[in-house]
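Researcher: Next sequence.
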Amino acid sequence: MTALLDWLDDHHLRDWSAHEAATHGWSRNVLKHQIKTNAHTRLKAALSNFPAALPAGDSDLAQQLTKDPYVLDFLALDGDAKERHLEQALVDRIIDTLRELGEGFAFVGRQVHFDVDGDDFCVDLLFFHVEQLRYVVFELKTGKFKPEYLGQLGSYVSLVDDRLRRTQHVDTVGLLLVADKNDAVVRYSLSGQQNPIGVASYDLLPPAVRAALPSEADLASALHDDRDGASNAHG
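Model: Next structure:
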C-alpha cells in the first residue's frame, strides 16, 4: 500500500489517497482503482437537485454518493453498446461495478418490477446504501441527456420510496447515467423536479485513453482544414 502511494508524484493526491484509504479501509486493489480512474476529481461531482429536494444535512450525504463521470472501462464495451447490454454487463461484473460506485453500496436487483394498477414498470438497477440506509435507483441511457428522462426516473424513485422504503430508511434518490450531456440543460431540467435526482455521465474508456483522443473541437477543426485543402486543390 505504501509503495503504491510513493509512486504518486503529486503530494496533494498522495495525501488525499492516504487519508481516504485509511478512512474507508480501502484494499490495495480499491486504492489502485481510485488512483487509476482519478477518483479525487470525480467524487461528489454529479449535477443534482439534492439541495432543493432533501433536507440540508441529508442532501450533503446524498451528494457524497455521486461521481461524474463513472468510469466503466472494466466492461470492455464500445460506445455503440445497447442499454440492455450495458445493464447486463454491469450486473455480470458486479464486484467491479460496486467498486466503482463506492463504499457502502449493495446490489438489490436488475429490472426490478413494479405493478401499478395493471401497468408494468421496471427499474434498471437498484442498489441500497447500507451506511446511509437509502435506496439508490440507477437509470441508464446510452445517448445524450434528454429532459424527459428525469420524469421517468422520478417516477421510479417515487415507486421505490412508496413500495420498498421502511421507516428507518432515509429518502430514496435517483441517479441517471448518460453517455453525454449538456450541463446547462441538465441544470434547467433538474430545477423542475421534486424527487431527488442526480445526473452523471459514464465513460467506457480508461481515463488515459480518453485523454489521448482528439476532442470534438479538434475533429471539427481537422475536418474544416481538410475541406479547405480540397477546395484549394480543385481551385
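Model: The first strand starts at residue 47 and ends at 48. The chain has a mean pLDDT of 86.
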